[in-house]
Design brief:
With 443 residues, the chain is α/β, with parallel strands linked by helices. Strand 4 and strand 5 form a beta hairpin. The N and C termini lie far apart (118 Å). The longest helix is centred in the C-terminal third of the chain and has 32 residues. Helix 15 packs parallel to helix 19 and helix 18 packs across helix 19. Strands 1, 2, 3, 6, 7, 8, 9, 10, 11 and 12 form a ten-stranded mixed beta sheet that branches. The chain has a two-stranded antiparallel ribbon with strand order 4-5. The protein is built from 19 helices and twelve strands.
Length: 443
């Protein structure tokens, strides 16, 4: 009996003297398309501000992230969706994948409800803008000087023959920000004129990269002279001392880059805390860091911005009232059209435009010398028509059945894409032949 009592006393003493159990570290899983420089900075800062929470970042391009969240919706393992493409949030909200979150009024009060005509936050509380962004042109100043190229100012400048082979863009199917840029151009110029411009720009591209990060890297390194980018790529490069410039075209759109909590995610409380951190002073001011170069949603904080830092709340940029519902409704169709008309047929498109530009130069010389050029003009006009033609109109591109096929009718999707690919191949081959015929007619 004495032995048993002594054992109990010793056991109790051991329990009382034992060090307190260390609380298990909780993971906060973030799916994002942002570059490492951005998410690593926020990972380090948030973990310091919230001890016991470890951020796990899953980098994915926007379209892949949407697919991932759809595939895991029955048992989500991600807590945060964090990307620039505002229409991606529209898509996931419609799918019921984003949680509705009520943030403190004091936090939201200092953020305008809209920038221009575009809401910064989802009115229903399913996603929140943490930065604002515009889309534009980034160039390497040394490259332009070396190749005697003018500085571009507008989207239409990129159709100029002088830029043939000097441009770079990422594929919109692989980049949410590039998809938005394509949509800005389509909404600025209309479906037919917008695609005609995109096809001319596509013919001038030296390369089409798989990721949006590849564009600024190619411009900074001098591999190409001009890139189509979201503004923070240009701003961060300038702040880091690279020989680059950046400009917003007259017709562009200013939209928020957003963050959302995934419905049913394993760490809802920490996910909400992360959103609040992004919108608080510390999270907002971090956007000014040279390696990040983004634009806060709190206008008052621009008083603390680096010298000459752009403020889209005062610059009155725009010219395009961006329709995110239209963009999200035809997202898959637009991306697929771009791939099958430009990305996958880039070699043929580039060759067709090279032939067209050569024919235009020959035609100008012939006219200057008084030569008859009617036959060449007719062939060249038809070549341009073929090189800018579209297989579907705007109504067809927004058709519900067509867009639904990209979700759950693979055989219909495959048929559409095959038709578009064949259309592009035949048109570019014929356009090149006509342009070469025009040159021959001028000899």
């Amino acid at each position: 009996m004495l032995t048993l009592t002594r054992t109990l006393v010793i056991g109790l003493a051991l329990i009382l003297c034992a060090p307190p159990a260390v609380a298990a570290t909780k993971e906060l899983v973030i799916v994002t398309s942002f570059p490492k420089e951005l998410f690593e900075a926020y990972k380090k800062a948030f973990e310091a501000a919230r001890p016991g929470v470890r951020l796990v970042v899953k980098p994915q391009q926007t379209n892949a992230a949407i697919t991932y969240l759809r595939e895991t919706r029955a048992k989500p393992d991600a807590d945060i969706f964090w990307v620039s493409a505002v229409d991606a949030f529209q898509v996931l909200k419609a799918d019921g994948i984003l949680d509705k979150v009520a943030l403190p009024e004091a936090l939201l009060r200092r953020i305008p409800k809209a920038i221009g005509t575009f809401p910064i936050h989802d009115p229903d509380g399913h996603y929140f803008g943490f930065a604002v962004s515009g889309y534009g042109l980034m160039w390497n100043t040394r490259y332009l000087t070396l190749h005697r190229l003018p500085t571009p100012k507008e989207w239409t400048d990129l159709a100029d023959a002088r830029y043939h082979g000097h441009l770079v863009i990422s594929a919109p199917s692989r980049s949410g920000t590039t998809h938005l840029t394509i949509e800005v151009i389509l909404q600025a110029y209309g479906w037919e004129k917008g695609w005609a411009l995109l096809l001319q720009m596509g013919g001038n591209m030296g390369s089409i990269t798989e990721r949006s990060f590849g564009v600024p890297e190619a411009v900074i390194s001098g591999q190409y002279g001009i890139g189509v980018v979201i503004d923070f790529f240009g701003l961060s490069a300038i702040a880091s001392g690279h020989p680059v410039g950046f400009a917003y075209p007259t017709l562009t759109s200013v939209v928020p880059a957003s963050v959302a909590v995934v419905k049913g995610g394993p760490n809802t409380d920490n996910a909400r805390a992360f959103v609040e951190y992004l919108l608080g002073d510390e999270g907002q001011l971090r956007l000014f860091s040279p390696e990040i170069g983004r634009l806060p949603v709190v206008p008052d904080l621009y008083a603390k911005a680096p010298a000459a830092y752009p403020n889209l709340f005062t610059m009155k940029l725009g010219g395009v009232s961006f329709n995110d519902k239209l963009s999200s409704s035809r997202r898959n169709v637009v991306n697929s059209l771009y791939d099958h008309l430009i990305t996958f047929r880039h070699a043929e498109l580039k060759a067709a435009w090279a032939a067209i530009f050569a024919a235009e130069t020959a035609l100008a010389k012939a006219k200057a010398s008084g030569k008859s050029a009617a036959e060449a003009e007719k062939a060249l006009a038809e070549a341009r028509r073929l090189a800018t033609a579209m297989p579907v109109d705007a109504a067809r591109a927004s058709d519900r059945e067509v867009n639904a096929a990209f979700k759950d009718k693979p055989e219909v999707k495959a048929k559409l894409e095959t038709d578009w690919d064949n259309f592009a191949k035949a048109n570019y081959t014929q356009a090149r032949a006509l342009a070469e015929r025009a040159v021959a007619a001028l000899r």
